[in-house]
Specification:
alpha/beta, Rossmann fold, five-stranded parallel sheet, about 15% strand
């Protein structure tokens, strides 16, 4: 990490080191946008890696509610559903999020993502940022040993 042992690393310094399953995700405050296939998988993976995760989605269908219940059971800090849930950037455990992981269907100009940009919170796409970690998790489950899969550098929106 870039920070000295006496100082707490900045969120940006910490994010630079998140390249694999073996990276230190513990306690990272993350908002995941979307509770569909990729958002659910991203949230589940992040929770398993030790991140504190809040999931948001405009959906309130029976499927979204069931997925929300599952994520709460596995340790999501919160799951916020409905139109109001996607208007602003939620706090994670009462503090500013350090990262937003967004599903492919979310436009960069969507109000929550725009709020993240204004707050200087990095936004990563689920397909690029967590693919390696999910692959590593699958390999670990098959073999019982950690994989050395690296994730692609997540894209940053201008």
């Amino acid at each position: 990490m870039s920070a000295s042992p006496q100082t707490k690393p900045s969120a940006n310094d910490r994010l630079k080191d998140l390249v694999s399953w073996d990276s230190d995700w513990k306690g990272l405050r993350v908002v995941v946008t979307g509770i569909g296939v990729s958002g659910f998988a991203a949230a589940d993976t992040l929770i398993e890696l030790g991140a504190r995760v809040v999931v948001v989605d405009a959906a309130t269908s029976a499927k979204a509610l069931a997925q929300a219940d599952t994520l709460k059971i596995v340790g999501a800090a919160d799951v916020l559903l409905g139109q109001d849930a996607v208007k602003t950037l939620p706090r994670v455990d009462g503090e500013k999020a350090e990262l937003v992981v967004t599903s492919p269907g979310w436009r960069p100009d969507q109000s929550l993502l725009a709020a993240a940009k204004r707050a200087h919170v990095p936004v990563w796409a689920t397909s690029n940022s967590l693919g390696g970690c999910a692959n590593a998790r699958a390999a670990r489950r098959r073999t019982g040993s950690p994989s050395r899969v690296r994730t692609a550098r997540p894209p940053r929106w201008a």
